Here is the input.
Amino acid sequence: DAGVIQSPRHEVTEMGQEVTLRCKPISGHDYLFWYRQTMMRGLELLIYFNNNVPIDDSGMPEDRFSAKMPNASFSTLKIQPSEPRDSAVYFCASSRDRLNTEAFFGQGTRLTVV
Amino acid sequence: AQSVTQLGSHVSVSEGALVLLRCNYSSSVPPYLFWYVQYPNQGLQLLLKYTTGATLVKGINGFEAEFKKSETSFHLTKPSAHMSDAAEYFCVVTIQGGKLIFGQGTELSVKP
Here is the structure.
């Protein structure tokens, strides 16, 4: 398996624009997580899915953020409208379960909102 | 609730020296503990994990960690640092049915 695949690797957008980040988890993994990493706040869990169903979105900062998982092999994180404070690295991770097994991370999407 | 504290946001060692990255956790029930490593411009990669059983856990790249319940610690060590160990290291705690709680991270620098 190629691992967790995220696209794009880098995104630069203007304030107010819509941004969509994409993730393909490892086949057979039932859990998918979206994290945000910033210098100030470290690594934050935004939302996670189990079998394509959102389980906990309490980490989603605002209504401007939304995430979907239409099928087991694809998820999106959308920011609309984007703001400069959304600039961060966004990671997607997947695992077979939440605990004893390893969470595999993608390489991240570095988002810059100007 | 669970929490994790990594002592020292930045640690610098010389090549060949002992690496010691400190992690203390708080949990009201038996925790599961992990160390992840993040190389520059990369995602996180699991180094090692403790769930149950032997308290000394060995991981990849020569790293190991010991779960000490009495001290609520899970420090990461490596006997001899290599230049390629330079990265950011995250201690993580969770419990049955819980979410992964990440520490703030410790950046390890290795001097030649």
